[in-house]
RNA sequence: GGAUCCUUAGCUCAGUUGGAUAGAGCAACCGCCUUCUAAGCGGUCGGUCACAGGUUCGAGCCCUGUAGGAUCCGCCA
């Protein structure tokens, strides 16, 4: 199925070439959707921009372009308005035909990327010795969404979690495991059934109260890095324990199963080469015993170039070294065409530095795209970084459980008010899907780069740009299918658009491909949220004004197809956001 | 001292390569359920796009400066 925008673009370009010569064959026609329906559906703004080079007035240019346009199969005759806008209004038959081919496509007529790229998508990088907290919410939700979008568009996606699995906090857990479960059998059992949070709390307690334990923990780190077999065994147990705990939360959040964990331990063998290769490029400088690369455009208080330390004076490596090793691995071993880094905006300096060093070392080929997608902080309602009462980061589990509990209360109240009775399993499922969906949607629906204020009341609002509103729109469509006992998939699409609200909905349905391209390019999930919110609104208007099941044929079938396309678009869109739909709620 | 991001309606936010009259939601107020779930729809109210210059046929968007806010800055990640 052809994209209307691209199709029209090509035709305006052809008209440009016809009017002003072959040089204009590839000229950007500045074709965009109109922001006001009275100007039609699309407008070309190119005439104004050509006024100066062609030394003519824009309206005359627009007229010349219009004379060469061949668009009668798609649009009404184009009109010229204002200073020189060329306006296009799509023909009804064209819209109907587009809807029919969309209906017959199992991916709603959305084309796959050509050529597909190998894309690495970042997932959260927690220190896995600790329980997941609110700081991991955004990278999980955003990473999952970006991965699903580029995957749907046909790219080969590798999901990577750059976990912290080698540092000091591990010494504490290893020492605790060895102390509390000296018997290997018991240790194995504890790591397959225990809770990471409990483990961490108890280990921390021991660490704070006992000097001997503290020393044991330090020794454990040293032994671990020296490759001591027993300690390595204990370390593996702790990693397993973490993985299980993390998976539980990821499952609750519907985060992909196929994430690859590559942490500090994974990159250990590659760290020395980072230093030796940097040395070869001549970028490496020794300063106060540390190996550094002096940066361009980053200065200290005295205006001197700032170093990026890649090897500490004690010979140890740090996060810059690991990030450089990871970048190299992704390019050389994974053969990535595009690497999507998504971290909190506080690390943008750090990544700008990493990218600079990698580029200056010529480690990044021309055709590899390093996409940096920073995100803002999660704030509490006081406008400050979200913290628990005790000042610690809020555990993610608590945050999500609270959202589910609040949703459950809402659902129960509504059921009582409507005198409906539903099973406990039904209520719990709705509470989970709506509650988790609301948390994710609240995060994704805002511009990624800005900080956002976490508010249960706002995200669980049944009205407005929220997950519940959209999930309800989906439920309404499914209700029509149930009530009318219509199998949407079996419909023979013969479209017949009549009412204004049908046209509005139809035109919106046909623009999902543009939105996904936009998300792929800009890495802004809120564009997709905006699209889905508008789709829900437009469907609700259609639902309000156009009876479906009672309508006479052929209108009835046509409207049923509209319902089906809306349902499938909502379902796909929400899926790409990582949100599950419900049939009833 | 430097770097990055931000400042749009009372509140929370959109605003797509610069395009026609700057948009939503919430809150407030007024309407609409014998008809597919009213968790819905329609309407009213609400703006010096932080400020000042500049570029342009055209600026919320690009450039410069100012004010305010957030985050980060040599051996933590």
Q: Please identify, by name, the CATH architecture of the largest domain.
A: Orthogonal Bundle
Structural class, from helix and strand content?
alpha/beta
Poorly predicted regions are: none
CATH class of the largest domain: Mainly Alpha
Q: How many distinct beta strands? A: 14
Shape: globular
Q: Please count the helical segments.
A: 22
CATH homologous superfamily grouping of the largest domain: Isoleucyl-tRNA Synthetase, Domain 1
Question: Span from first to last CA?
Answer: 34 Å
The main pleated sheet reads as: 5 strands, parallel
CATH topology of the largest domain: Isoleucyl-tRNA Synthetase, Domain 1
Give the overall average pLDDT: 91
Portion in beta strands: 5-15%
Descriptors:
alpha/beta; 585 residues; 4 domains; Rossmann fold; 14 strands; five-stranded parallel β-sheet; four-stranded antiparallel β-sheet; RNA-binding; Gyrase A, domain 2
Description:
Helix 7 (184-193) runs parallel beside helix 10, helix 12 (271-281) packs across helix 13 (319-332) and helix 15 (396-417) packs across helix 16 (424-444). The strands form four sheets. This protein has a five-stranded parallel β-sheet with strand order 7-6-5-11-12, with helices on both faces. The chain contains 22 helices and 14 strands. It folds into four domains: 4-90, Gyrase A, domain 2 (2-Layer Sandwich); 123-161 and 267-372, Rossmann fold; 168-257, no CATH class; 397-577, Isoleucyl-tRNA Synthetase, Domain 1, CATH 1.10.730.10. It has helices at residues 4-20, 46-54, 58-68, 92-104, 137-152, 168-180, 184-193, 196-209, 211-226, 229-252, 264-267, 271-281, 319-332, 348-360, 396-417, 424-444, 456-459, 467-483, 500-509, 512-522, 525-545, 555-577; strands at 31-33, 42-44, 79-81, 85-88, 118-123, 156-161, 259-261, 284-287, 290-299, 305-311, 338-341, 369-372, 378-379, 452-453. The longest helix is centred in the middle third of the chain and has 24 residues, at 229-252. By secondary structure, it is an alpha/beta fold. Strand 3 and strand 4 form a beta hairpin. Helix content is 54%, strand content 10%. It binds one RNA strand of 77 nucleotides through helix 2, strand 9, strand 10, helix 13 and helix 14.
């Amino acid at each position: 199925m052809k994209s209307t925008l691209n199709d029209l673009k090509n035709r305006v370009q052809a008209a440009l070439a016809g009017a002003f010569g072959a040089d204009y064959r590839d000229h950007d026609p500045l074709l965009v959707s109109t922001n006001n329906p009275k100007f039609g559906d699309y407008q070309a703004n190119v005439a104004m921009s050509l006024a100066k080079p062609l030394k003519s007035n824009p309206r005359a240019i627009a007229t010349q372009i219009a004379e060469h346009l061949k668009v009668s199969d798609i649009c009404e005759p184009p009109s010229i308005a204002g200073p020189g806008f060329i306006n296009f209004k799509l023909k009804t038959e064209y819209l109907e035909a587009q809807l029919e081919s969309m209906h017959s496509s199992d991916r709603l007529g959305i084309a796959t990327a050509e050529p597909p790229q190998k894309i690495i998508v970042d997932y959260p990088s927690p220190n896995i010795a600790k329980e997941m907290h609110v700081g991991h919410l955004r990278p999980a939700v955003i990473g999952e969404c970006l991965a699903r979008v580029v995957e749907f568009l046909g790219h080969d996606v590798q999901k990577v979690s750059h976990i912290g699995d080698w540092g000091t906090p591990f010494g504490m857990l290893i020492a605790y495991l060895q102390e509390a479960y000296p018997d290997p059998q018991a240790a194995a059992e504890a790591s397959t059934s225990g809770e990471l949070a409990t483990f961490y709390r108890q280990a921390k307690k021991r660490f704070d109260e006992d000097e001997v334990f503290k020393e044991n923990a330090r020794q454990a780190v040293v032994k671990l890095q020296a490759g001591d077999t027993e300690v390595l065994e204990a370390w593996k147990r702790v990693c397993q324990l973490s993985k299980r705990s993390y998976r539980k939360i990821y499952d609750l959040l519907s985060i992909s199963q196929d994430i690859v964990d590559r942490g500090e331990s994974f990159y250990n063998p590659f760290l020395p080469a980072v230093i030796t290769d940097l040395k070869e490029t001549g970028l490496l400088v020794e300063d106060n015993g540390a190996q550094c690369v002096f940066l361009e455009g980053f200065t200290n208080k005295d205006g001197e170039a700032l170093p990026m330390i890649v090897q500490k004076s004690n010979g140890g490596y740090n996060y810059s070294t690991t990030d450089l090793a990871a970048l190299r691995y992704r390019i050389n071993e994974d053969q990535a065409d595009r690497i999507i880094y998504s971290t909190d905006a506080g690390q943008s300096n750090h990544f700008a530095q990493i990218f600079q060093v990698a580029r200056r070392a010529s480690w990044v080929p021309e055709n590899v795209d390093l996409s940096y997608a920073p995100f803002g902080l999660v704030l509490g309602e006081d406008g400050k970084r979200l913290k628990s009462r005790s000042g610690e980061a809020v555990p993610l589990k608590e945050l999500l459980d609270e959202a589910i509990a609040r949703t459950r209360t809402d659902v129960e109240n509504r059921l009582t008010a409507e005198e409906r009775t539903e099973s406990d399993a039904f209520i719990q499922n709705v509470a989970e899907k709506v509650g988790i969906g609301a948390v994710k949607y609240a995060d994704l629906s805002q511009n990624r780069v800005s900080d956002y204020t976490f508010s249960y009341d706002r995200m669980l609002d049944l009205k407005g740009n929220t997950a519940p509103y959209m999930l309800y729109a989906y439920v309404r469509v499914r209700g029509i299918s149930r009530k009318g006992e219509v199998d949407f998939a079996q419909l023979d699409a013969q479209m017949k658009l009549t009412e204004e609200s049908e046209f509005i909905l139809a035109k919106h349905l046909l623009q999902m491909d543009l939105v996904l391209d936009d998300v792929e390019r800009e890495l802004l999930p809120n564009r997709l949220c905006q699209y889905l919110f508008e789709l829900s609104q437009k469907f609700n208007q259609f639902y309000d004004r156009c009876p479906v099941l009672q309508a006479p044929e052929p209108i009835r079938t046509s409207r049923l197809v509209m319902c089906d396309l809306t349902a499938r678009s909502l379902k796909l869109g929400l899926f790409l956001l990582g949100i599950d739909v419900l049939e009833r709620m």
